[in-house]
User: Fold this.
Amino acid sequence: MVDAALKDGTADRRCVFEVFARRLPDGRRYGVAAGLGRFLTALTEFRFGDEEIGFLRDRDVIDEGTARWLADYRFTGDVRAYREGEVFFPESPVLQVEGTFAESVVLETLALSTFNADSAIAGAAARMVSAADGRPLAEMGSRRTGEWNAVAAARAAYIAGFGATSNLEAGRTWGIPTMGTAAHAFTLLHDSEEAAFRSQLDALGDGTTLLVDTYDIEAAVETAVRLTNGRLGAVRIDSGDLPSVVAAVRAQLDRLGAPATKITVTNDLDEYTIAALRAAPVDSYGVGTSVVSGSGHPAAGMVFKLVAHQTPAGDEWVPVAKKSADKVSTGGRKEAGRRLRNGIATAEVVLTSGRVGPDERPLLVPVVEHGEVDPAFLGVAGVEAARAHHKRAKAELPVDASRIGRGDPAIPTLVI
Amino acid sequence: MVDAALKDGTADRRCVFEVFARRLPDGRRYGVAAGLGRFLTALTEFRFGDEEIGFLRDRDVIDEGTARWLADYRFTGDVRAYREGEVFFPESPVLQVEGTFAESVVLETLALSTFNADSAIAGAAARMVSAADGRPLAEMGSRRTGEWNAVAAARAAYIAGFGATSNLEAGRTWGIPTMGTAAHAFTLLHDSEEAAFRSQLDALGDGTTLLVDTYDIEAAVETAVRLTNGRLGAVRIDSGDLPSVVAAVRAQLDRLGAPATKITVTNDLDEYTIAALRAAPVDSYGVGTSVVSGSGHPAAGMVFKLVAHQTPAGDEWVPVAKKSADKVSTGGRKEAGRRLRNGIATAEVVLTSGRVGPDERPLLVPVVEHGEVDPAFLGVAGVEAARAHHKRAKAELPVDASRIGRGDPAIPTLVI
Assistant:
C-alpha cells in the first residue's frame, strides 16, 4: 500500500484512522482499553533498520523509493486516545491517529497488536477483580502465553486491578509488585515434605507461603504449623474441590493455633470459580491461564480504520467508510464523551460532529503531538496512572455492570 | 526455589523434568508440538544480566549467593524432545530436561511459554489445513495477538502447513513465505475505487490481488476485470455470506472473460467456516484471529513437572510424582514411541521403564547434549524440517483424525 501510494501521490494525504471494536465479546458488559503505554513506547522506537529494509528489497516487496522513505521513517502526526485503563463500549474510538496516509497506515499492526492483546487481558482481569470482591489477585499466567506476551499480560492485569504478578520481568520493566511461589517440584525434590518446608522457611522466613497439596493436605498443614509454631504466613492450595478443601484447611489452621495464617488458592481459576469462592475463607487468588488468555476472548476485536482524509488540495476533510454487507462503519473523525448522571454513566456518546456536552466526560486526550509522545503515558508512571484511572472509570459504571453473568453492554453507545 | 535449594544443598541434585499435556483441548483429536526451535534459540541466549540481577537483589528476591549463581548461569544439561511438528497426545513427554535442579527449574517458564503458545497455534492450524483440503492458507492474524506472539504464530502456522504469512518479520527471521494485501483504507483513500485499483495495478502489476468489497462487489469486479483486460491475478472478499458471494463472483469473473482470476477469502475464518466453503470455488484462504488464538484454545495446557531426581549420593534415580486429588502424574523418566500398523498409528506408548519396541517409531530425540544445542533444530532449516516432519507425522494418523467435529484423541495413550 505504501509503495503504491508513494507512486500515485496519495501517500501524503492527511488522514485520520481510528481504532474501535464493533462489539464487545459475547456477553461482556464493558471493555477495558489497555496497551496505550506499550504502543507509545514502541512508537518512539518505530524505525526501519538496514536489515529490515534489505529484506524487503531482496524479496521485492518494495522499490527503491519506498526503501528510502522507510529509512527516514519517523511518525510526525498526532494521536489522541482513551486514557489507558478507561472502559470502552462498541464503537468507542479508543485510539485516533492523524497523519499522512503512509506514516499512519504502517502503524496498523503495531496499534492493533498492542491494543487487542492487552485489552483482552484487562477486560478479563477487571471481571475477576469484581468477582474477588476486594480480596487480592495475583497474575501467574506467564507459562500459558508467549514469553513476551507474558510481560504485557502482567502489566494489563495490574492496570485492571490485580495486585501482583509472578513475572519478574514485568516487575523490572513496569514496576509491578512481584510475588513468587514454590512449585510441587520443590517438595518432590526433597527427601520429605518436611525437609522441603524447612528449607523454604530457612531461606524465606515464617512469613512465606507453603504449598500444601503435593501429598496429603491435612498432614502438610499439620507439618507447616508445627515447623512455624503457628506463625506461618500462608498456605497455597492448587488442587481439589476448592470450596470444601479451603473450609477444611481454615478449620484445621484455626484448631492448630494458626488463625493468622492465610490461604491462597490457584487451581485454574477464572471469574466464575473466583465468584464461587466468595463464601469460602480464601484470602487471595493466583490466576493463570484464564487471565492471560482473556478468559475465552483472547483478542479484543479492535480494528484500525480510515475514517477521513483530506482532499487533494488539503483544504477539506472527506469522511469515508466501508459500505459492505456485514461490517458497517461510521465515517468521519469522532469525539467521544461518557454521559453521566449523578456520577453514574448512562451512555457512551460518539459524535461525528460537534463537541462533547457539559454532562459528558471527554474521553479522548492528546497523547502524541507532532510526533512527540507525552511521557506521562510511558513507563512506570504511565502504568500507575492507568491503574488509578481504571478504578475511577469502573466506579462510574452502573452497579449491574460488574455482574459476572452474560449481558448487554452496560450502557448504550449513541453514535450521533 | 533456587535460593532455598542453593542453601540446603539440593540445587545440585540431578533431575529430570518433563513437559506434557494431561489432556487435549476439548474435542481435539491430536495436538501438534511446536515451539522447540524457539525454545532452543532462547536457551542458547539464556543468561542473567547485571540489570536483571540488580533488580532481584534490590527487591530482596535473592541473596548474594544466588546472584553469583545467576551471573554464571549457563545450562549444561541434556534435553530430548519430540521433533518440532510432531503430533502428540495426552501424557506425551514432548520435552525432557535433565540437569541439576537449579539449572533446570529456571527454564520452566521459558519452556512452557514457547511450547504452550506455539503448540496451541499449530494444533489449530493443522485442523484448518485439513479443512482446506489442499487449497492454500495464509496466516494473517498479526493484529489479533501480541506483537511478538505474532511472529511466533506465523512460524507455528507454517510448520502446521499454512503456505504463507502477512508477517514480514516472520519472513525475515524464519524464512517463511510472505504475502500482503491491500486494506479497505487504500480504496477509501482514493477519490474512486477505480483510482485505487489503477494505483495498485501500476505498482504491483496485473498479477496482484484486488480487494473488491469496499463498496459494491459486482461493480468492483467489473472494474477490476476491465482495467486488466481479464488478466487480474485475484480478487479478495472480506465480508458477506461467503458461499453465495464467492459463487456469484466466480460466475461473474467467468462471464467477463477472467476465468484464470482467482478468489481469496478472509472473513473471520476458522476450521469450521473453511470446511463449509469446500463446495465453493474458493482458491485460497486468509486466516487471522482464529489461528493465532488457537481457535478457542489459546494455550496447549502443557505443564513442566519434576519426574525423577537422583539420590543425595547420586547413585540412583528416584521417580517422583504429585499425589493430589485431581492432577495425577506418572513419575520416572519416560521413553515414548508411536505404535504403527501398516504405517498407521494405533497407539501412543509412554514407557516408564524399558525401551521403545520394534513396531514403534521412537519419538524422543536428543536436541541438547551437555548444554550444546544441536543446530539442526534452529533457524530457517529447523522450521523447514519441522514442517516436513509434521506432514509425515500427520500422514500416519488414522484418516478419521482429521475430521473437524469433536472427538476423543485419535489414538489411545498407553502409559506402561
Q: What stands out?
A: Chain B has 15 helices and 19 strands. The domain at 2-121+297-415 of chain B is CATH 3.20.140.10 (nicotinate phosphoribosyltransferase). The radius of gyration of chain B is 25 Å. Residues 108-132 of chain B form the longest helix (25 residues).
